[in-house]
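Ticket #4471: structure export looks truncated?
Reporter: QA, pipeline team
Priority: medium

Steps to reproduce: submit the single chain below to the structure queue and open the exported record.
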Amino acid sequence: MTLFDVAKKNVKGNLKHYLMYLISMISSVVIFFTFVSLQYSDEIRAGLESSESVRAIFAQASYLLMLFMAIFIWYSNSFFTKKRKKEVGLYSLLGVRKKTIARMLFYENVMMGAVALVAGIVLGTFLSKLFAMLFLRLMDSAVQVGVVFSFEALVHTTIVFAAMVLLTSVQGYRLIYRFKLIELFQAEKEGEVTPKPSFRGAAAAVALLAAGYWVMWQPIVTTGQYMRNLLFVLVVMVAGTYLLFRFVTVALLQAAKRSKSRYYRGINMIGTAQLMYRIQGNARVLTIISLLSAVTLSAGCVGYSMYYSNGKTAALVSPFSLMHVSKGEAFDAQVRSVLEQDREHPVELAQDLPVIKAKGVMTRSDILPPRYSREDDNPVKLIAASTYNKIQTELGRTGNVRLKGDEALGIKPMYTNYTSADYAGEALALQLPGGTRNAAFVGMTEERVLNWSFPDYMVIVSDEAFEDMSRQIAPIVYKAYKIAREQSMKQTSERLYALDAELRKLPTFYTEYRKGLEEAGINLFTLGFLGLVFLAATGSIIYFKQLTEAHSDKERYAILRKIGVRKKEVGLSVAKQTGFIFALPLAVGLLHCGAILKAITTLYGSVSEVNLTVPIASAMLVYLLLYCGYYALTVRSYNKIVNG
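Actual output as written to the record:
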């Protein structure tokens, strides 16, 4: 019998013990192969207008997925490697050389890797159709998807997982050459030192996390500042989270011990002692789980929020379906003719908007940045109050404005965090041919009436001020149209762009909606996909860790049952211990997620009128349900081991 035959017999004989590791590897192959298949999918390329950018995003996400899956498989392998220490020790005791044992473990790993690769690719081939359909559904694309095998994805996946098999084989070599024979036989008896509470450690944890949150919420001005802040936040968040679990958790358990009525109830004393005893090892795991939970939750919330708010964001950017600057009756008639030829998208509203463009200087330069003037000689767009009120009424809005004399009202620029308080008391010095005229701001409104264009600086002035300034500067007339079913007027948009390329300077509702839909759909799919992977890894890491402890505690619980402790009490103790381990990183992850979402709002600016409560709550609810599912599975498996 060859060494390879022995390895094959080992795998068959211990399939029950290897099953979870094998499932982890198969799941990794399925996820990676499916994702890479979408990257090379011709159907996705045909169904999207921005297919090249989609491919680039998928490529970047696949690298992140590759790194993460390597870490996940490494951790899964380490769990099963620890369980085999006695077996390796027995081989050494029988005189088998370490080099031979290492080769045998390598053969076993290769066999399981080959099985996982074949099974994962077969499953991934069929699942890739399902995920491609889901992806194109998010894009609102009617392209039909079939089962197509991707040779590029096969090569990519094979190379990646061959490297991972080698990586885990190195891990097996470390097991053989690192430990002495006595250590291999006493692996399950190795314990941890019960940590002592430390006020300084707990204070350092709180201080580091507070510093990380504070830096995270600071406005970013330069790329260098962004990189410095990002590096600082990563370091202090990891360190602060670890210290939080290392010392604050000890304080919580110490407080539980001081509550005598609960501590001595049932076998709570044993459960608390076990948590305290293993807190050092759990601190590292809980840190990883909480950080992964924060990333997963943030990714899900951001991805779904972008997708959920796309229609409202497009309406903010383009209040009208189409808008263009009037170039005379002949050109305007051509545009109107193109619109009237589209029977499926009739014009519901046509409106002229006279606008004065002028130079101006603000008392606060950050509200009217100097770069606006470098981009456009006349960056300030002035609209009469009566015109603004008329458009508000025709668009079905409320909130008309009343201005007199030199009073002015700012219109909030897109993707900024300005409020009425920022404008109130400020003044704008308009440079007109007849001299300088000051406009005194009385506040700000968030409702826009012009489609977005850069520079994005619009001001409402009183009718008398607008009339006076129009004698010095001739107003520009914007022709605005509101069209039925504006989110699907692709052909009409293309015909208008062919008529005059300058029409692209003012986005139509369709172009903004479609662009936002594809970007948001890609982000939702990739972030959601990665989020599910992170969630699976998060649950699996806790699952493997708890099962490792269950095998170590099996004899202790057997002694408890012999002295009269009922299985129900043991099960309740297991549920409490596992609940503590699951709840702590979840709570910290939710805290980190809230900080990250606030930081994203600070960095990119809030979008007015878009309420993100529903998408954020929905993403968190889905995560909590799946997370609770892992908790239930872990409790059941733990109970089966110690109570079986």
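Status: closed, not a bug. The export was complete when the record was re-opened. Leaving a note from the reviewer for reference: The longest strand covers residues 347-362.
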